[in-house]
Amino acid sequence: MVDLGVIWDCDTDLSVYRYLKSISFETPSGEDIFFNDVGEVPATFDIMNLQIFPNNQYRLVKVGRYESWATTTQQISLDIGAINWNQEFTEVPHSVCSESCQRGNRKISMEGRPQCCFQCVPCSMGEITNETDAAVCIKCPEDMWPNEKQDGCLKKMVQFLSYEELMGVSLAAASISFSSITLLVLCIFRKFSDTPVVKANNRSLSYVILVGLAVCFLSSLVFIGYPLGFICLLRQVVFGVSFSIVVSGMLTKTITVILIFQSTKPNSIGKRFDSRISKGVMFTCPLLQVIICIVWLGTSPPYPELNMKSKPDTIIAECNEGSNLFFCGMLGYMGLLATVSFIVAFMSRRLPDSFNEGQYITFSMFVFLSVWICFIPAYLSAEGKNLVVVEVFAILASSAGLLGCLFFPKCYIIMYRPDMNTKQYVRGRP
User: Fold this and answer.
1) Where are the beta strands (DSSP E) in 288-409?
2) What pTM was estimated for this model as a whole?
3) Average pLDDT over residues 253-274
4) How many DSSP H helices and E strands does the chain contain?
5) Domains identified in the chain and CATH numbers
């Protein structure tokens, strides 16, 4: 059975509450009285100051007022001059438990303590706060990084091997210098092309190798500077093909030496072969590298990329190789050619001096392989512009090793020992 009296009372309360919400009046003292949305009268408090005198008498003095209904900046009004502070305190007491958190920090509440008590914690890496007493930190945009105080974002520095820095200028100067030296050696060989030393070293192959070395040196210039689209396409391709031509020339030289020596023996297999083998090796070996590069460029070509993940405060402008498989395949094929050339040259090093180029080729290929074997771990551990520096250094060092070991001894004989540039000396006869 329902109690109608209770229902009547509830309805009456609701009706009364509806009317109370609209009540607003002013007291004789000038205070505004009204009810808020939840039926409460906004609180108003007087702020009293307990003032104790030397004769142990005291009194309460009204020094301010707190009005909860006012705006945040007007809720408290104080008459500072009316306040009598305790003489034991040398400064005004703080009204909060914790000091305000400065910009670059965020607030963390302390468990079991009042809301005004909190800890200030620096923002995490990559985040900032640009206002005091911030509850959360905000992340900087992807292309920006917090400043030292973590209260603002700065543009990230774009890093690449530039011509404007010492390392870039040094490598570029070395590249041009070595290329010029290579062309000078080519001119020397061309000028003295009819001398026995140049003839004995297969003039046409020497020209091809020297031109290939000059291109190898110059290819390192493509690695310096801001990486653009066409530069990324040229970098590895020019480097890989030019080195394949040079190493193939070395291999062809060695095979030619062996065939010439074999042809001097009666009933030797070398007599059944001619220069077509050498030309076939010289043409086929670089062609396979060209095919690898064409397939690479046609399926997954290199492209410029802004790497924002390797270093949190730096944008690395680099060339993405597109396909690591083709990049490793290009280097692997070049290493295979160099290894085969080294082995064949090593086997021919004992041939008579009258036809022997094997010793020079063996040592030059040993230098070449040593440089690139050291290059692999250094390349894998480097990043950013250091990675480019490692590759450029490997290109210059290996090319310089081939040039010095194979051609400088002959240039010395041509320029400074003409008495040794004779048929008798080349053939090993007194």
Assistant:
1) 303-307, 314-320
2) 0.70
3) 62
4) 10, 14
5) 31-84 (no CATH), 105-155 (no CATH), 166-426 (1.20.1070.10)
